Amino acid sequence: MDDADGFNELPELAIRMDEALEALGENAAMVLSELNGYLCGILTSPEVIPDDEWLREIWDSEDDNGPFESLADANAFKALVRDYKKSIDDELSGETFEPIYDIDAETEEVIWEIWAIGFSRAMDLRIDSWNAYLESSDEEVSEALMNLMGLVAIADPEEESEAVSEEDLAEVHEAAPDIIPYAVLALYHGGERGLQRSHLDS
Questions:
Q1: For residue 135, what are the domain limits?
Q2: pLDDT in tens, 34-72
Q3: How many domains does the chain have?
Q4: Residue 24's domain is classified under what CATH number?
Q5: pLDDT tens digits for 155-173?
Q6: If DSSP states are collapsed to H, E and C, what string results for the chain?
Q7: What InterPro entries does the record point to (predicted)?
C-alpha cells in the first residue's frame, strides 16, 4: 500500500513493513496501522512479553515460523518486524509520536479504529497486568490508559461499551487521532517500564 492508497507519507522502513504484510496475503493477521498499534501496546505493556509470543499474533498460525515457505523467509520477516518495533521504540523515547493511521481515500477521514484494535490485541496478551496503570498514583498514566480503553471500546464491536450519543461519538472520532499519541507517550514514559527505563538511563 503506497501513500496514495491510504496512508500519509511513510518512513522507508514502514513502507517495507507494509509490503511484507501485504505479501502474506490472507495469512496476515494485521495490516500496517494495526501492527503499529499492536507494537505500541507491546512496548508500553507493564509486563515484558517474549518475542516468540507476540510475533505469532501477526500471522494466522500457531507455528513459530508462520506461513512462510522457508525458515530463512520466516527469519527475514521476524527481523523486519523487530527493526520496525525498534523504530517505534526510538520514536517513543522522544517527545513526539506519530501513529500510523489508515486514511479513507474518498473522505480523507482518519481511520484510527484499526490502530486501536491493534493496541487492544497487545493488551489482551497480559490483560491483568494493565491494572497497574489504572491503579497508578500518576494520574496522567491512569487517565492515558482509560482514554485508550475508551477508544478501544468504540473501535472494537466485540468490546462492551456504554451507550454514547451520536454527538459525543462524533466528538470522540474527531479527537481520537490526537488523543492516541499523547496517551501512548504517557504510558511509555510514565508507566512501569517507563520508570525502569528512567532508572537505567540515570
A1: 3-201
A2: 999 999 999 999 999 999 899 989 986 677 677 888 899
A3: 1
A4: 1.20.120.740
A5: 977 655 566 667 778 888 8
A6: CCHHHCCCCCCHHHHHHHHHHHHHHHHECCCHHHHHHHHHHHHHCCCCCCHHHHHHCCECCCCCCCCCCCHHHHHHHHHHHHHHHHHHHHHHCCCCCCCCCEECCCCCCEECHHHHHHHHHHHHHCHHHHHHHHCCCCHHHHHHHHHHHHHHHHHCCCCCCCCCCHHHHHHHHHHHHHHHHHHHHHHHHHCHHHHHHHHHHC
A7: YgfB-like (IPR011978), YgfB-like_sf (IPR036255)
